[in-house]
Amino acid sequence: xxxxxxxxxxxxxxHVRQAAVSALRAWAKGHDYAETLIERHAHRRMLSxxxxxxxxxxxxxxxxxxxxxxxxxxKLRDGKVDAETRDVLRVGLCQLLILGIxxxxxxxxxxxxxxxxxxxxxxxxxxxxxxxxxxLLDEVADLPPAVAxxxxxxxxxxxxxxxxxxxAIALMEWNNLPAPxxxxxxxxAPVPAEFPGIPVAxxxxxxxxxxxxxxxxxxxxxxxxxxxxxxxxxxxxxxxPGERMLDACAAPGGKAFLIAAAQGSAENLLCTDSxxxxxxxxxxxxxxxxxxxxxxxxxxxxxxAPPEWHAAFDGILLDxxxxxxxxxxRRVDVRWRLQAxxxxxxxxxxRKMLENALPCLKPGGRLVYSTCSIEPEENLGQVAAxxxxxxxxxxxxxxxxxxxxxxxxxxxxxxxxxxA
Length: 420
Description:
With 420 residues, the chain is of the alpha/beta class. Helices cover 46% and strands 15% of the residues. It contains 19 helices and 11 strands. The longest helix is centred in the last third of the chain and has 18 residues, at 340-357.
């Protein structure tokens, strides 16, 4: 069985399970993303570092395996289950059948996290799953792939049409694995004596983290947490010292940092973002990464650019909001939040942003359009439709990172050159 696995640990009390159930209820109502809910509930209940880790493992485990967990609930429980009780059962079954947590802790603590009126039901279902564990796990290989690997049918069918069945299954398997942490060395900062990681092949300056987060190196700006796939867009942009650059969708600042690093300074870089509330974090990140000279401004690129920006930039990075289908392993909410019609709607907004960025290029300038999507409609299809309407531009390079093939996040980048 492919899934999320976690080192077994015992729990001191049922507060972690209570927090997991509460977080799932809030998530189902669309209140927040999973990462935000983990922080909120860990802080609210004053969880230790170990218990916070357990909360994250349970919440991510449930969201990554939600459809499979519901399949098991259907086999173990006759009749309907209300939404809150279902979340309690998901939390319990995730521990027992996915995470490998000892039976006594998983059953007893999860039962206590439910309402008194349903504790008997929860206890019966979870104990039934312990008895049937081997048969439940053995049958997973015979389930439809989208059920076994907990993805919506429409998403699996879309990927199967684009990639073929075997690669679509490989992608879903990838999405269910815990995501490693990568970081990049900051060439704008003093070089640290030691790097707590393993170099990433074909990605100079990037390392896979070993051990806990190195808080001192992060605080000093010597390193920055970043997936190697982020390099593709900036590599295609190829910023040179002295050139005027625009990072149009810059928050939280990862690619802006790469641009500044390539230029040796951020003094010729303009960073914009549509959400004014994200600008303080962008500023803070750039200051920590020794790129504080960048100019920061709020702008929504679905609207025309200010006249003073017209023909002002040698290069533009347009890293547009997208479906996030290339980063589902990290953003566990995406597979359930995203709906099939959303991709077309997103593509319309992306095209508006592309059109509004064009006037800002100097003659002979280049624009790199990028996403963290693997959907053709948002990527090469988008670029092809744009070029058909703009013969004054030409496509000079593309890069596509597929997670299961390249062992990074999914990403797409295309460099579009304005004819001089």
